[in-house]
Each structure stands twice: as structure tokens, then as C-alpha cells.
UniProtKB/TrEMBL annotation:
Record-level Gene Ontology MF annotations: transmembrane transporter activity
Species name: Streptomyces spiralis
InterPro entries (alphabetical): EmrB-like (IPR004638), MFS (IPR011701), MFS_dom (IPR020846), MFS_trans_sf (IPR036259), Sugar_transporter_CS (IPR005829)
GO BP terms: response to antibiotic
Coiled-coil stretches: none
Its membrane topology: Multi-pass membrane protein
Residue ranges of the TM segments: 24-44, 64-84, 91-110, 122-140, 152-173, 179-200, 212-232, 244-261, 282-305, 317-339, 346-367, 461-480
Keyword DNA repair: no
Superkingdom classification of source: Bacteria
Subcellular location: Cell membrane
Name this protein carries in UniProt: MFS transporter
CC annotations in GO: plasma membrane
Length: 501
């Protein structure tokens, strides 16, 4: 089989596709909804101390504000993706947006810890409907290779920068308004996305013979719940906790049972043919690795700037702006220049190499080093690297997918991102805490020594993030088979897709 570029998807809408102008308005709607979801990964984190003070919950309860969202979101993503395939992407998208907005309003108005947790869990549940529907809409709306590259460049930039934007916006809202506005802000995004989606999106044709794989849904949802909860539990209770390993082992067993069931199911939730495509599998790994390593940037660099350098929440958010700008520019270069010419086998590993180099560079920070000399340059390198990972990987992962599988493939991409973030948070937190403990052994805990121990924990996390990126580079480099894109190869892929359809 000849090497090809990422394969354009088959059309998934009835009749002729939307006009060029309409397609770009659709991208704006999808991007707005996606931004709303990715913001919530970090925007609430900055507001947690204020929310804790207002509602009076304990430090041990604080993690549940984050965990409730990630558990519901991560465990229900594949179900959300398949529902988009079965019920129609437009309908599921609009339900997801409306539900996410309602849950945000509930959480923002919370007068108790329990009400806040319910609102956050509902946010995760509706986010699991919204995120895969949005990506599958993007996949089926942009079918021309050049336009598709630009669209995925924009979408990938949003996915990559959303965490940093959340830090900035969360700091601004918490400092100048209230922690509640980190949740209420979603209402504005949702109103625009709902109005635009209702007008611009078209209903997609449903397959009357398709059915929901209920056993598979139960197995994978419970399995992902176990994995995400186990990783979340590792952060406060450590890796020696019986509960941590119990949930991880149970989740792994359920996912293994789900995989076995998919080989026998008449209407599988996640057809294994999707995972057997090497380019698609490599892209899933790339998204997983990028999400894992990125938490080394957002989490520990935020700690460093606020704890060691005494930045305010707003100043911390502003410190990430150069990386956001670099990532946006890099995403467009990757989507429109390097990916069409070189293919993902070159582009994605190069992006991971740049990301690893940026993390190694960050290990040179000190208690008295300047932002301009020791933080800004590696952030720019990280932005350039991640811009060459997320958009190309998402483009390749969703290319050439049959319309009836677009939702579940998009959900798999989102699942990799969510699980990767959970792995990164749990693993890096554990390693950082261990590094600080070892540093203090045999030392008198003076204020300066304690500050150095904290700094050592941050740089240790950066080293391990670099190692994650490097390991990902090796894995995706071995898996990818697609090389340089050529016009005949693209045309041949389109013809094969049309014949298959």
C-alpha cells in the first residue's frame, strides 16, 4: 500500500456540503464550544481557594471539585461519541452546549459543597456529549484537504492553549469579580454557540440499523471511571494506597473485557478496525503524551510563578501568553505547511522533540532567576513544539473515518486527552512530592531550604515531563507510516473513501 497523507474524511451530511463562508462560521461555533470545555480544566483551579473560603469545605474535599468533573467527563466520552453517531451530531452538540451551560449556572450559584460537586459532575457529563460531537462536526464539515488543514490548525490551537487561557481568565475573574464567574462565564460562550449551532449546523442522516452497544458502554464507562478515579486518588493518597491500585486494576480489567467484547459485538461501541490503523493509533498516542506532558507546564510552572516568584493569579496567566501565541502560530504552520509536505511521521516527532527540549530548558530556573531569561524562551519553544503535535495528531486521527464512526473516533481523541491529563497530574505530583521529601532529608528546614526543596520538586516534574515527551517521540515515530503528502495520494484516498461509502 503506498504511503499517503492524512486521508480526507467521507462526507457525513445529507446533500451538498455547506458553502465556504458557512463552513468558517461553523468552525467559529465549534471552536467556541470547544474552548468552553477546555477552559474548565484549569479556570476553576485558580478559583478553588476563594470557593473553599465561601462554602467552607475542607482541604481534603477540595480535590473533588476537580475530580467530579474529570470522572464524569472521562468515563462518558465514548458513550457521548457514539450517541452523536446514532442520534445526529447537531442534536447531541446542542444538547451538550445547553446542558453544560445549565450545569455551569448550577455550580456557580452553589450555596453548599454538595451543590457545587453536583454542578461540576453535570458539567463533565454534558461535556462528554459536547466535545466528541464538536470534533466530529469539524471532521465532517471540512473535507477539502487545504481547508481541513487550516480548520484543524485552529481547533488544535484551541485544544492546546485552552488550559493557559483558563489560567489567565480564571485569575482575572477571581481577582476582579468572584470565583462564581469562573463558572458563569460559560453562559456567554454557550449562548453564542447555541444560537450559531441552531442556525448553521445541518442535521445528519442517521443509520436506522445502528444500535447502541449497551454491554460495551457499561464496561468501558466503568473501566474509564476506575482508571480516572485511581489516578485522581493517587494524587492525595499516594501510589502505595490500596484504593489507588484497586481502582486502577479494576479499571484495567474492565477495559480488557470491553476490548474482548468489541470483537464479538454486532454493533460495537468502538470498532477495533479504528485502532488497528497505525497512523490513527499513533495519533491517539501523541494526544495522550501531549496531554500528560502539558500538565508539567500548566501545573508546576504555575506553582513556581505563584509560590516561588510570588506572581498574582493574573500575572501568572499573562506569563503564559507568549506560549499561547507561539502555539497558535506553530499550529497554523504545521497544518498548512509542514504536515502537507512532510506528513505526521516527521512533523509530530519533531514537535515532541521541541516540547522535550523546552521542558529541559525550564529545569534551569532558580529562586532568583528572571522571567525573560529563564521562563520566556522555553515557553516559546514549548509553544512551537506543541503546535506541531496537537493539530496534526487530531487531523490524522480523524481523517478517512466513515461517517457512522466519526463521533466515536472523536470521542477517542478526547478520551486520550482526558486520561493523559489525569496520568500527568497524578504521576508528576507524586514524583514532585517525593523529590521534595528526598531533598529535605538530612537538611535543616530553614525558609531558604524549604524554598529550594519546592524548587527541586518543580524542576523534577519538568525533567519527567521531558522524559514523557521523549518516550512519546519514540513511540509515535515507530507507529506512524504516513510520509510526505502528494496530490495523487490525496485524490486516491478520496476515491477509495467514496467507493467504500
Amino acid at each position: 500500500m503506498p504511503s499517503t497523507a492524512p486521508r480526507p474524511p467521507m462526507a457525513g451530511t445529507d446533500g451538498p456540503g455547506p458553502s465556504a463562508a458557512r463552513r468558517w462560521w461553523i468552525l467559529a461555533v465549534i471552536g467556541l464550544a470547544q474552548l468552553m470545555v477546555v477552559l474548565d480544566a484549569t479556570i476553576v483551579n485558580i478559583a478553588l481557594p476563594s470557593a473553599q473560603h465561601d462554602l467552607g469545605f475542607s482541604d481534603s474535599d477540595r480535590q473533588w471539585v476537580v475530580t467530579a468533573y474529570s470522572l464524569a467527563f472521562g468515563s462518558l466520552l465514548l458513550l457521548g461519541g457514539r450517541l452523536a453517531d446514532l442520534m445526529g451530531r447537531k442534536l447531541v452538540f446542542l444538547i451538550g452546549v445547553a446542558g453544560f451551560a445549565s450545569a455551569s449556572a448550577l455550580a456557580g450559584a452553589a450555596d453548599s459543597f454538595g451543590m457545587l460537586i453536583i454542578g461540576r459532575a453535570l458539567q463533565g457529563m454534558f461535556g462528554a456529549l459536547l466535545a466528541p460531537a464538536a470534533l466530529s462536526l469539524l471532521n465532517t464539515t471540512f473535507t477539502q484537504a487545504r481547508e481541513r488543514a487550516k480548520a484543524f490548525g485552529v481547533y488544535g490551537a484551541i485544544a492546546g492553549t485552552g488550559g493557559a487561557i483558563g489560567l489567565l481568565l480564571g485569575g482575572l475573574l477571581t481577582e476582579h469579580l468572584s470565583w462564581r464567574w469562573t463558572l458563569y462565564v460559560n453562559l456567554g460562550f454557550a449562548a453564542l454557540a447555541l444560537a450559531g449551532g441552531a442556525v448553521l449546523l445541518r442535521r445528519t442522516r442517521r443509520d436506522p440499523g445502528a444500535r447502541l452497544d449497551l454491554p460495551g458502554t457499561l464496561l468501558v464507562s466503568a473501566g474509564l471511571f476506575g482508571v480516572v478515579y485511581g489516578l485522581s486518588n493517587a494524587e492525595p493518597h499516594g501510589w502505595d494506597s490500596v484504593m489507588t491500585w484497586g481502582y486502577l486494576a479494576g479499571g484495567a480489567c474492565l477495559i480488557a473485557a470491553f476490548t474482548a467484547w468489541q470483537t464479538r459485538a454486532v454493533h460495537p461501541l468502538l470498532p477495533l478496525r479504528i485502532l488497528l490503523d497505525r497512523d490513527r493509533a499513533a495519533s491517539f498516542v501523541a494526544v495522550l503524551v501531549a496531554a500528560s506532558g502539558m500538565f508539567g507546564i500548566f501545573l508546576f510552572l504555575t506553582y513556581y510563578l505563584q509560590v516561588s516568584r510570588h506572581y498574582s493569579p493574573v500575572s501568572t496567566g499573562l506569563a503564559f501568553l507568549p506560549m499561547i501565541a507561539a502555539l497558535i502560530v506553530s499550529a497554523q504552520i504545521a497544518a498548512n505547511v509542514t504536515l502537507p509536505r512532510l506528513g505526521p511521521r516527521v512533523v509530530v516527532p519533531v514537535g515532541l522533540a521541541l516540547a522535550a527540549a523546552g521542558m529541559v530548558w525550564l529545569t534551569r530556573i532558580g529562586l532568583d532567576t528572571s522571567y525573560a531569561g529563564y521562563v520566556l524562551p522555553p515557553l516559546l519553544v514549548l509553544g512551537l513544539g506543541l503546535g506541531h503535535v496537537m493539530p496534526p495528531a487530531m487531523n490524522t486521527a480523524t481523517a478517512g473515518v466513515a461517517p457512522n464512526d466519526a463521533g466515536v473516533v472523536s470521542a477517542t481523541v478526547n478520551t486520550m486527552q482526558q486520561v493523559g491529563g489525569s496520568i500527568g497530574t497524578a504521576l508528576l505530583n507524586t514524583l514532585a512530592t517525593s523529590a521534595a521529601t528526598h531533598y529535605l532529608n538530612g537538611r535543616t528546614p530553614t525558609p531558604r531550604v524549604l524554598a529550594q526543596a519546592q524548587l527541586h520538586s518543580f524542576t523534577t516534574a519538568f525533567w519527567w515531563s521531558a522524559a514523557v515527551f521523549a518516550l512519546g517521540l519514540v513511540c509515535v515515530g515507530a507507529l506512524y507510516r504516513t510520509r510526505r503528502a502528494t496530490a495523487p495520494a490525496v485524490q486516491d484516498s478520496q476515491q477509495k473513501a467514496a467507493m467504500h461509502f
